[in-house]
Amino acid sequence: MTYTLADLPMLGGLDDGRLRGLEAAARRRRYPAGQVLCTEGDPAEHLIVLLDGRVKAGRASPEGREVLLAVEAAPVAFDKTALLVDGPHRATLTALTPVEVAYLPRSTVLGLVAAEPTVAARLLRTLAATVRDLDDRLTDAAVRDVPSRVATWLVRRCAGGRVPLHAGQAGLGAEIGASRVSVNRALRGFERRGMIEIGTGEVIVLDPHALSHLAALPPPP
């Protein structure tokens, strides 16, 4: 499904005239899977808005190994913080599927934030949620074992019963701070206990209540 700029949470509620101005300023592009959208360390001169498809965000370790930070699906905007502080891209973005992207110039975005208090408020809420998520991930990595972290990751995504592994078990491990081997061991343990079924590129959650108990979270609706 291809989204529009109006579907981006931080731009929701803008009037038609303002949205038409943003559309006129945006540069739209389509890319195949595997295309690099931006590289870590490059100047962040545009807000990168993903309108269709999925993208992974990764950074390079000192040894040259990719560290996966996140896998995101449209609609989402990347590098909002870098744009606000006039800094470089904090991660390399790579298309996992064919994607459609809109590039909004930094000056356009900053002008919008200055002129529209509702946009500024939504942006602050988005950044606050990002900080909270990072804090949760760091705390989990420090005090919780891998099975409970994997269970938490699954419970938070299993509303439909099926949880896609867009970047495989290695990607899941990168998101929760664990090795692929440790993630696989945890998933196999859940499968033996009848909590899940490991499919091709996905995990099918069979017993969300048992997973929620293991993760110490409320069961999903």
UniProtKB/TrEMBL annotation:
Pfam families (alphabetical): cNMP_binding (PF00027), HTH_Crp_2 (PF13545)
Which branch of life, at top level?
Bacteria
Extract the PROSITE patterns matched here: CNMP_BINDING_1, CNMP_BINDING_3, HTH_CRP_2
Can you name one GO molecular function term for this protein? Answer: DNA-binding transcription factor activity
Q: Which UniProt keywords apply?
A: DNA-binding, Transcription, Transcription regulation
User: In the UniProt record, which is one GO cellular component term?
Assistant: cytosol
The residue range of the signal peptide is none
Output the InterPro entries linked to this UniProt entry.
Answer: cNMP-bd_CS, cNMP-bd_dom, cNMP-bd_dom_sf, Env_Response_Regulators, HTH_CRP, RmlC-like_jellyroll, WH-like_DNA-bd_sf, WH_DNA-bd_sf
Please give the name of this protein.
Cyclic nucleotide-binding domain-containing protein
Species of the source: Nonomuraea phyllanthi
Per the UniProt record, the lineage of the source organism begins with: Bacteria, Bacillati, Actinomycetota, Actinomycetes, Streptosporangiales
